[in-house]
Amino acid sequence: MTQVVYVLNGPNLNLLGLREPEIYGHDTLDDIAGMLEDRAQSLGLEIDMRQSNHEGHLIDWLHEAQAQGARAVLINAGAYTHTSVALHDAIKAVQLPVIEVHLSNPHKREEFRHRSYVGMAAMGTVAGFGANSYIVALEAVARL
Ligand code: DQA
Question: What are the residue numbers of the active site?
Answer without folding.
Answer: 24, 102
